[in-house]
Amino acid sequence: MNEIQGAGVALVTPFNADGTIDFETLGRLIEFQIEEGMNYLVSLGTTGETATLSTEERKQVWKFTADKVKGRVPLVAGIGGNNTMEIVQQIQDFDVKGYCAILSVSPYYNKPTQEGIYQHYKAIAKISKLPIILYNVPGRTGSNMTAATTLRLAKDFSNIVAIKEASGSFSQFSEILRDKPKDFVLISGDDPVTLPMMALGAVGVISVIGNAYPKLVSTLARLCSEGKYQEARSIHSQLLTITDLCFVEGNPGGVKHILNQIGIGNDHVRLPLVPIGTVTQTAIVKEMGQLH
């Protein structure tokens, strides 16, 4: 899976004022990512507010994105949730044209046991035509997929090829890297820890802040992959505060505000999310002035 090396971005889904999908802005965002050096794109990860989209809207976004990219960079589709049968059906119905892998978040809210998480991904792996990237984000799902479960899945299913890890546990990262199959890869799922994770052996990041700063994120990942950590530290430090501000009132409201400020889209999100408040907006704009 050379396609998922380096910097990937979990694309936001732009909306019009009436709540419909703003495909014109999505097209400009895709071009911006490619022009600024992003290695691959993730269409409808959780940052894309996927839970608020209808089945038909998801199909439209996936097709639009593939048609717009035209094979210029690899594409990953986000298909995940807490209803295993429904996710299996979505993956079976998915038009794989233009896509190289599926990113599937660990089941949320239900708080399944480790065996439940294993069986969920087993059901997906058995039917998927594309390789699977696991996604562990306990702060959102309410449950942690342990290193033991990740390794069990990696060893039992050859089409489970990677994990996007956002647990924040370096002991967990280290255990995965130590015991994983040779071709299974670790990806940072949290922008602020990309540098230290890549120093341990992760192959890159699936970024949120990369929506707004693709060149910085892609350069950071490249420098880390080349072992140039001193140079990478400068970018890492630049991005820390702006990334933190993006999550003060929830994702993707913060990064959408930055995109609005740089002329790509607006602040519109779908309920239950609302646009970020004026205090956070002011802090973001102030920090943007410090970046170069």
Automatic annotation (TrEMBL):
Pyruvate binds at T47, I206. It is found in: Cytoplasm. InterPro entries: Aldolase_TIM, DapA, DapA-like, Schiff_base-form_aldolases_AS. The active site is at Y135 (proton donor/acceptor), K164 (schiff-base intermediate with substrate). The record marks T46, Y109 as: Part of a proton relay during catalysis. It catalyses: L-aspartate 4-semialdehyde + pyruvate = (2S,4S)-4-hydroxy-2,3,4,5-tetrahydrodipicolinate + H2O + H(+). Catalyzes the condensation of (S)-aspartate-beta-semialdehyde [(S)-ASA] and pyruvate to 4-hydroxy-tetrahydrodipicolinate (HTPA). Homotetramer; dimer of dimers. This is 4-hydroxy-tetrahydrodipicolinate synthase. The gene is dapA.
